[in-house]
Amino acid sequence: MAKAVETQNLERVKSVRRVPQEEYYVPGHRTCQGCGPALCYKLVSKATGPDSIFLGPTGCMYVANTSYLCSPFAYPWMHTQITNAGAVASGIEAAYQVLIRKGKYKGKLPNIVVMGGDGGSIDIGLQAMSGMMYRGHDALFIMYDNESYANTGIQTSPMSPYGANTTFTPPGKAIPEGKVLFPKDAPQMVIGGHPAVKYVATASLAYPVDLINKVRKGLNVVGPTFIHIHCPCPKGWLFDADKTIKVAKMAIETGMWVNYEWEEGEYTYQHTPKEYKPVKEYMKTQERFAHLTDEHIAKMQAFIDAKLKAPGKPVPLPVQSPRESV
Ligand SMILES: Cc1ncc(C[n+]2csc(CCOP(=O)(O)OP(=O)(O)O)c2C)c(N)n1
Ligand code: SF4
Ligand SMILES: [Mg+2]
Predict the structure, then answer these.
(1) If you placed Cys at 166, which of 90, 136, 156, 206 could pair as Cys (CB 3.0 to 4.6 Å)?
(2) CA of 97 to the centre of ligand 3 (A)
(3) What is the value of pTM for the model shown?
């Protein structure tokens, strides 16, 4: 008779003092000083513990972390193509299910975690991620969002904000605001199109205990889960390396980032300020927005105001797409 597949049950962490001391993302890698995605890896690794398998699609967190026979990951970790992390996670999960049922693997199902960049999750990696969600594999897909294709030189991605100066959207005479498009809404794409998904969350480096608990919650759910994590990138967003947490916090204070959980149709929000600061305060922290005029910033404010009125709902974009003007 087939054996039942036992899954792990990770405890909620009550305070920062109860966060595990053990490091599973260890020093010695080559990411930039103040790298948000590297801090994200460290926190997620503390949440999962060592009985885990991580998949890393091509991006900064693969290239800057690994070199021949050397990596900072103290658990099994595998590079995937930027296009196929969801497919690789699906195959690993399916293989463990078979091995456990046949009695060939005695342990519980390991935590299977994809750590995808924004490109490797919601753009180039979208089809494989969506397939994993659609088929209902028991794995957690984390999108560490540094709002660009950072590893290939801070190129624009669908998560780069309106007005960002990236190497593919430089501001100039023809297009003074730099990037003209507003970003995709990644969690809503997962929620809206994948009936097998029961848990989706957003998290911020400014609230590490909340982040760790969301990772644990996602892993405790049997089935596919998705967490979108805001990860400031000093090199791409152009701020000093000691300001990563300050930038993350300012995003929450201005409404540029909202922490929430979605569980089987119900939303709960965390860390919402009594009154939001103007988005200009956030934009001032980063040189990538330095070229913007008051008119551009007003467009961003209008977009954020509309989003905050109905978080989780699609909002009309306050600017026309470039094709509309042709
Ligand atoms: C199919 C394919 N297209 C393009 C690339 C080149 N490439 C390597 S890393 C990368 C950037 C990845 O961006 P993201 O997923 O956001 O991760 P980040 O580098 O920002 O951490 C790109 C475009 C590739 N490796 N494979
Ligand atoms: S470019 Fe950004 S994401 Fe990449 S290693 Fe540097 S700080 Fe980290
Ligand atoms: Mg990226």
Answers:
(1) 156
(2) 31
(3) 0.97
